[in-house]
Design brief:
It is found in: Nucleus. By secondary structure, the chain is α+β, with helices and mostly antiparallel strands. It is built from 11 helices and 20 strands.
Length: 447
């Protein structure tokens, strides 16, 4: 299950985003910068003395696993861990650049840095991580250990410890740094398993209509002269103003579905990449103008889900985040469930951010109805009206202390002031789905 409109960092003038508030500026009490450089009386930086130089050189090249302070894009120093290294100049034994993880931030901000960005005076001795885990494990309470375990597996709840280590090892270094999609150049966040022939590329060029990807700009330009698509392949099932939604059948448009998965994986850490896209329908949201329909995000769903899942994966592309599109996609998935005459729920496990986004949607929808009915409504009636699964309704209302268990049944407590307070906390609902503009036949009825 993917992330929806998460917090953002700056990337080439476009907004980007992901889980766990990674790109908020570090708290004032966070990482301390290294000591200021000694300066001469004329204001120029003094050269470090010979012993200092020797000490700094003695730690080079830095080993994988080394912890050190690194100058980030905000000009401040933050703690990092060296994940990987690569040689730049074969003639210089210490000429490496390093792939680092900023320990205060989400993994998507990992990047290659030059040696001059690292404060070698802050280098910590490399400790074998298995020994370190054993030692720290002895000192922590069970509650503290559980909190750390929860942090480590965020977004990967379905993986056991061995699978999680294998996943992190395989995906630890971003293979594609940037992509060009339409009029945007976008910094990527995570590893995506593109075919081996793209291993030497740091940038890929995507056709924004068919999602074919190329190594060079000239290839894209040649492709665009031949590509006759101006929108995603598939049926347009919704058009309201400049917004359109297209339903793409993974079986009929296999290459498009696979390319969409490659693209999405660049921005979703815990997405499982399905090469067999035949089993899925993709709902691609577009902004339309006289040049065509430009993808802003999508969600996918299984054609047949025994667990009543109405959404498998969801993504809003970074340049279009914070515009309400993620909330729109969630709302749209429930409108499809209503058309099917079914209740729906997102595929589990949900990431922390995914759960937060859905709780916001469920809270707004349910409390609006409770206000209108003054609480005189049952959970089953709420489920029938909204297509939200009864368990999700019950959990949402319980988390808001709006439900009590009396005489063997659940009773909804709907004080108007309490409802208003919760609605205010849930925030705005985003873009509305105009159901009158939805023209769609459920998949089971097609053909």
């Amino acid at each position: 299950m993917g992330s929806i409109d998460p917090p953002r960092a700056e990337q080439n003038g476009t907004a980007s985003a992901v889980v766990a508030d990674p790109d908020q500026k570090p708290a004032a009490g966070g990482a301390m910068p290294p000591p200021a450089a000694v300066k001469h009386s004329n204001g120029t930086a003094a050269e470090p003395d010979a012993p200092t130089k020797r000490r700094r050189m003695s730690v080079l090249p830095l080993e994988v696993g080394t912890r050190v302070m690194c100058r980030w894009r905000d000009g401040k120093y933050h703690p990092v861990k060296v994940i990987e290294r690569r040689k730049l100049n074969p003639g210089d034994p210490n000429d490496y650049e390093y792939y680092v993880h900023y320990t205060e931030f989400n993994r998507r901000l990992d990047e290659w840095v030059k040696l001059e960005q690292l404060d070698l005076d802050s280098v910590e001795t490399v400790v074998d991580e298995k020994v370190e885990d054993k030692v720290t494990g002895l000192k922590m309470t069970r509650h503290q250990k559980r909190k750390i375990d929860e942090t480590h597996v965020e977004g990967h709840e379905e993986l056991d410890a061995a699978s999680l280590r294998e996943h992190e090892e395989f995906t630890k270094v971003k293979n594609i740094a940037t992509i060009e999609l339409g009029r945007y150049e976008i910094e990527t966040w995570y590893f995506s398993p593109f075919p081996p022939e793209y291993n030497d590329c740091s940038k890929l060029y995507f056709c924004e209509f068919c999602l074919n990807f190329m190594k060079r700009k000239e290839q894209l330009q040649r492709h665009m002269k031949k590509c006759d698509l101006k929108h995603p392949p598939g049926d347009e099932i919704y058009r309201s103003g400049t917004l359109s939604m297209f339903e793409v059948d993974g079986k009929k448009n296999k290459v498009y579905g696979q390319n969409l998965c490659y693209l999405a994986k660049l921005f979703l850490d815990h997405k499982t990449l399905y090469y067999d896209v035949d089993l899925f329908l993709f709902y691609v949201l577009c902004e339309c103008d006289d040049r065509g329909c430009h993808m802003v995000g999508y969600f996918s769903k299984e054609k047949h889900s025994e667990e009543s899942y109405n959404l498998a994966c969801i993504l809003t592309l970074p340049p279009y985040q914070r515009k309400g599109y993620g909330k729109f996609l969630i709302a749209f998935s429930y409108e499809l469930s209503k058309k099917e005459g079914k209740v729906g729920t997102p595929e589990r496990p949900l990431s922390d951010l995914g759960l937060l986004s859905y709780k916001g949607y469920w809270t707004r929808v349910l409390l609006d109805i409770l206000k209108k009915h003054k609480g005189n409504i049952s959970i089953k009636e709420l489920s029938d009206m909204t297509a939200i699964k009864a368990d999700d309704i019950l959990n949402t209302l319980q988390s808001l202390d709006l439900i009590q268990y009396r005489k063997g049944q659940h009773v909804i407590c709907a004080d108007p002031k309490v409802l208003d307070r919760h609605l205010k906390a849930a925030g705005r609902g985003g873009l509305e789905v105009d159901v009158s503009k939805l023209i769609w036949t459920p998949y089971r009825e097609q053909g």
